[in-house]
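Before drawing any conclusions, I looked closely at one protein, both as residues and as discrete backbone shape codes, quoted below without any editing:
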Amino acid sequence: MTPEIKLSSRTRRPLRHAVAALGVAALAGLGLSLAAPAAYAEPADAAAEALGAVGRLLQEGTSNGSANLPGLNSLLDPDNLRPDGPRGGNGTTSCSTVVHIGDSTSVGIDDAATVGDPAARLSEQYRAVGVTRTVLNADGGRSIVERVNGAPNAVEAIASEQAKGHRGCWVIAMGVNDAANIGVGSTVHADERIDRVMGTLDGQRVLWPTVSTRSPSVNGYSEQNMTSFNQALRRATQRYPNLRVMDLAAQTQPGWFTDDGIHYSGTGSAARNRLYAAGLASAFP
């Protein structure tokens, strides 16, 4: 079935130089959302190793065909998704409809311009694990709370899709801009941001991948800030039985990023699409 796609008109453009002070208006065109500048040290990322085999397989060019996904899925330990999460599964998901809510890192992931191989695009990867309807709603600069140039934030995007009757399973590929906004002084902390999203999705199945950057050229997007947001995601699984957290950050390879250390190349986007699908099958078999 043809997927429904909502994409930003903004073009993802990598930042070429470190920026010490940029406001929201300057970053909006880059698909970023940052409230104010701040300097942070960027310690080495303490990435988990539990899902490392998946990342290595993808880095080596594992086929993206549906026949390979059960093998990848078996490497995604459901205990890493949620302490009391389901075990087993045959590499497919019981989710027939998936609404994928994202920021600029999700813009283009179902497009030929970003992912050249049709089989590696988001809707095809979801289809390979049993999804019959994919709705992609992604916009540059999006965060859970803040708005850029009046565009809907993530909570509003979710409400818009719900108003159209979309229910079922949700992939919330959000947090990069939120982590940065918190890092530069937002008073809306990560736990509250996550609560706002989950409060709109009561009783619906939610997969939320962890976020990451690599030596980003904008200080607010430090790896330290991403790690803090991911810790809040893990705490949230204790509050929301319908939430699964997939440790995508642990699988992300440095070579998947563009020069800005925040966005992803076509290769990185294709690899992430495979992981989204494998994670969905593991979380909701």
Observations:
- Strands lie at 4-6, 97-102, 133-138, 169-173, 205-209, 243-246.
- Residues 4-12+67-283 form a domain with the Rossmann fold fold (CATH 3.40.50.1110).
